[in-house]
Amino acid sequence: MRRILAIARKEFLHIIRDKRTLIAVLAMPLLQLFLFAYAVSFDVKDIPTAVLDQDHSVASRQYVNTLQQSNYFKITQNLGAMSQVDGVFSRSEDVAVVVLPPGFGDAITAGRPGPVQVLIDGAEPNSAQLGQAYATGLSRVYGFKVATDQADAKGVNLAGGGLSALTRVWYNPEGSSSAFLVPGLIVLLLTITTVQQTANTLVREKEQGTYEQLVVSPIKRIELMVGKVLPWAGIAALQVVVISGIGLVVFQVPFRGSVVLFALSSVLFVLCALGLGLVVSARASSIETANQLAMMISFLPAFMLSGFVFPLTSIPPVLQFVSYLFPARYFVVITRTIFLKGGGFDVLWPQIAALAVYAVVMLVLSSLLYRERA
Amino acid sequence: MTEAPHTGELALDIRGLTRRFREVTAVDDVTLTIPRGEVFGLVGPDGAGKSSLIRMLATVLAPTSGDALVFGRSVVKEAHAVKPRIGYMSQAFSLYGDLTVRENLDFFAELRGVPRREMAARAERLLEFSGLTEFQKRQAQFLSGGMKQKLALAATLISEPDMLFLDEPTTGVDPVSRREFWRIIAGLHRQGITVFVATPYMDEADRCNEIAFMAQGRIILRDTPTGMKKRVPGRVVEIAVSDYRAAMPVLKRLSYVRSIEVSGEMLRTLVDCEDDGACEGEMRALLSSSGLVVEHVRPTATDLEMAFATLIPSVDLPERDDRAAGPEVPE
């Protein structure tokens, strides 16, 4: 225990005496937080839209109004003919074209579904997908409104027997991307700083020649690993608090779950990430190699294979399998569940157990891989 | 493997220690015993395997084969029992540059389990002893080369080891600090600490109780400094002359001059002749007749430099696998 504390104190001194490390662990995550949170936005607003109203009825004008009033579409022009649509897309004037064919108004009045065609420029798939979703949603809302109006007029109570399929988005009703991103960003930023820093630590001892002095000392390898990890765990804890705080205050991300559970799982995750860094450090031949390896196993999986940006269900099965090998995927589920859904240990225990096992395996593995004698 | 009855008195019992790095055999079947309390010097050219040998003894490098007992405990199987009793100083500075002098000492004291109540007293004594007291708040990276080495030594001494392994501790250190450093080693010797030191400097080797010469991974010779010098065939004559470069070819003509070395502005010749001044007279006459102004020609003591220069070529470097024609290793 005394030796562990001696190592931890020494590591702490290294950290606070090195300005570059301090900047890397304290300022960089904040910068990255703001960059990511503002730059990586999936919110689609004011989609530039053209309208081709071939019906010229009261109903069609009402429909266009509904579109206009939502914040999602911005109607920039009215087209005269179908032949103009291609030009609109190829000149990138608009991303969506809403076509109201002749007979739209009649269909509505007759109580039949009004056919609306929404053409979307697929060059930017993300916006395309969302635009489509919004348009469908709006059409349904409009359709429901019309139906209600007609029912009212006819004195029928729809609430009793009428059919209506309603999609409701839970937990993040506005589909706000900061609510979606910030919990994931905590994972990403923690991974980058912690893995990177510990990946260097053992290699640096080797390059400085100080590892020989450690070897001559009666210290067990696991004591060395734990001692090296402790101060970083403290710094990572600080990062979690700061990043979450900014997420709650600046980005208005809700926090619905248990603070204790979040703290516990954060500690476990940080230990996993640090252990992963130590594994790299135990075997890397130089600081450069360690940095590159750390980048490969920290940033990439945390970004691509964690569900942070891309849903894990939509990646190829091989990569899905790979994603299980990195702690990020478990922690992304945990942060989102705690922040947005308020889920507790009863739902999160598999992920938390995975992190706990992972942390122990990494620390033990790193001390096994770290060869004392050259 | 049976232990010699007097193993308890040996600080070091090296048995066929070998280390290969891929194709290169850095340390080749070294067998050596060193009594307790000795200052033992290891000399030899760069690449002779001195560092590899020391690193194996200090449990930092794993031997390919063979073993070494430090105070009777195996560095291979009982490294945990060896570590608490040894201190090791590597060739390169091996402390933390961003930690202060005192923090470095305290760190190694904690790491090596120095009792808490003794820590401060020991650190202060070592600082005093190495003349670093007034620098204790300075970061180690801002110390001079000599002070760094003294700090490294102090850090190795904090756990009060019984055996010290020093790998070229004064390389790149100014002469004053070197002398200072050896004064400290002499003090440790008086306390009964066994010191095993590799050095490239012959004047340092001269201060050891015994020395071994290492080349190509093997111990070629082992003797006391005096013994080494006695082995030199012939005696040394020092010559101070107006132009030593011009004097060299002149002296080479004499049949009894075995070798000539330049030492500063003077020449040191190894001559094979009686100690009656006859040779000196002849050399003086020959140099004068060649138009050189002779300052002095006088017999002088053999030093280790001369000893190794003349002995090493005469000691046949052994064939790699020809043990029968092995080196002369006197006990």
How would you describe the overall organization of this protein?
- The complex is a heterodimer of chains A (374) and B (331).
- By secondary structure, chain A is mainly alpha-helical.
- Chain A has 2 domains: 2-41 and 176-369, no CATH class; 47-161, abc type-2 transporter like fold (3-Layer(aba) Sandwich).
- Helices cover 68% and strands 6% of the residues of chain A.
- Chain A has 15 helices and 4 strands.
- Chain A has a 4-stranded mixed β-sheet, with helices on both faces.
- The two termini of chain A are 26 Å apart.
- By secondary structure, chain B is α/β, with parallel strands linked by helices.
- Chain B folds into 2 domains: 8-226, P-loop containing nucleotide triphosphate hydrolases (Rossmann fold, 3-Layer(aba) Sandwich); 233-301, Alpha-Beta Plaits (2-Layer Sandwich).
- Helices cover 33% and strands 27% of the residues of chain B.
- Chain B has a 6-stranded mixed β-sheet with strand order 6-7-8-3-9-10, with helices on both faces.
- In chain B, α3 (101-111) packs across α4 (116-129) and α4 (116-129) packs antiparallel against α5 (145-157).
- Chain B starts with 9 loop residues before the first strand and ends in a 17-residue tail after the last helix.
- At the A-B interface, α1 and α9 of A face β6 and α3 of B.
Give the structure's gist in a few sentences.
With 374 residues, chain A is mainly α. Helices cover 68% and strands 6% of the residues of chain A. With 331 residues, chain B is an alpha/beta fold.
Relevant CATH superfamily of the largest domain in chain B: P-loop containing nucleotide triphosphate hydrolases
Number of beta strands of chain B = 14
Unreliable residue runs of chain B: 1-8, 317-331
Shape by Cα distribution of chain A: elongated
Q: Please write the CATH class name of the largest domain in chain B.
A: Alpha Beta
* Rg result of chain A: 28 Å
Largest sheet descriptor of chain B: 6 strands, mixed
* CA gyration radius of chain B, whole angstroms: 23 Å
Major β-sheet strand ordering of chain A: 2-1-3-4
Strands of chain A, count: 4
Please bin the fraction of helical residues of chain A: 55-70%
Strand content of chain B: 25-35%
Can you tell me the residue ranges of chain A where pLDDT is under 50 for at least 5 consecutive residues? 156-165
Shape of chain B: globular
